[in-house]
Design brief:
Layout: E1 2-7, H1 20-29, E2 34-38, H2 47-58, E3 64-67, H3 78-83, H4 87-92, E4 101-103, E5 106-110, H5 126-138, E6 144-148, H6 167-176, E7 181-184, E8 191-194, E9 205-208, E10 223-230, E11 233-241, E12 249-260, E13 263-266
Parallel strand pairs: 1-2, 2-3, 5-6, 6-7, 7-9
Antiparallel strand pairs: 1-10, 4-5, 8-9, 10-11, 11-12, 12-13
Length: 292
């Protein structure tokens, strides 16, 4: 069993300080193999906000993979935004194109989807698609290939933000070259389901986490995702902070998905899948047919 935690949109500078310790406690208590943070670590890409984010990351006991979000490039310094948009992020956090990270039965790849010329709307660059596809093609056929990006590759029609440029075409290319799951944020909304824009073809599973710490929760609780590969089933838990912050983060919902030759399907009606042990087991045959 391999456990991956997905956090997003921490927004240091507009965060809830009272949730910092509960979030760290929950993350470390779950003992993940990797923590992926899908962008917007800061509110305004200021040095002291990156320092707070870095201190948070350093207190996570597991390895951490991060990618930037649109809030992680400076809007208040136009010269830097134009000529060195990711410099503050790299100096404060690390590489803007992270991974791949190899885990038992899982390969995790970070993508940079931020467009410095636009405030919110992202874009998926061809070089990022090629890099992800090269890693997915070289991966063990049994590995689950997970992408981490700030901007969603698909979103609901009633969303008030524009879908990033190139998303629709990228979904097809990434799915066809063997990518399996996309973790994203940006919307501050929770969603986990197969992509809807690939009927009848190779599909990926999307997991949108909300915000782990931000005050801009948009009517939803602060949350993060716990993703476990258990044999041929992917278990996805939503951990939320309730009104009583002293209670910390608790598991609120659980979904199970199984992937076969027809793509991802819900496995929730096939009996409960209990939480696995904390130590990883050897990978199983979840996706042996993926690249057939």
């Amino acid at each position: 069993m391999t456990r991956l935690l997905h956090l997003s949109d921490l927004h240091f500078g507009r965060d809830r300080p009272e949730l910092l310790e509960p979030l760290l406690d929950a993350v470390n208590r779950l003992s993940p193999d990797l923590v992926a943070i899908s962008g917007d670590l800061t509110q305004r890409a200021r040095d002291h906000q990156f320092t707070e984010a870095r201190e948070f990351i350093d207190r996570i006991e597991a390895p951490v993979l991060t990618v930037p979000g649109n809030h992680d490039i400076p809007i208040h310094r136009p010269f830097t935004r134009l000529f060195d948009p990711f410099g503050p992020y790299r100096r404060g956090i690390g590489r803007d194109a992270a991974g791949p990270v190899e885990l038992p039965g899982m390969l995790v790849i970070g993508l940079n989807t931020v467009d410095p010329r636009r405030w919110q709307r992202g874009r998926i660059r061809q070089r990022e698609i090629r890099r992800a596809c090269a890693a997915a093609t070289a991966a063990d056929p049994d590995d689950l290939v997970v992408l981490v990006a700030h901007h969603p590759f698909e979103q609901r029609a009633n969303t008030d933000k524009r879908l990033m440029r190139g998303a629709f075409e990228a979904v097809g290319r990434l799915a066809d070259c063997g990518c399996d799951v996309v973790l994203s944020g940006h919307l501050h909304l929770w969603l986990t389901e197969p992509f809807l824009t690939r009927p009848g073809g190779q599909s990926m599973l999307q997991v949108h986490a909300g915000t782990g710490l931000s005050t801009r929760a948009r009517g939803e609780p602060n949350d993060f995702a716990c993703i476990e590969r258990q044999g041929d089933v992917l278990r996805i838990e939503r951990w939320i902070a309730g009104d009583d912050v002293t209670a910390g983060f608790t598991c609120a919902t659980v979904r199970h998905f199984r992937r076969g030759v027809e793509g991802w399907r819900s496995a929730d009606g096939q009996g409960p899948v209990p939480r696995g042990p904390l130590s990883p087991d050897p990978p199983h045959g979840l996706l042996a047919a993926r690249r057939a």
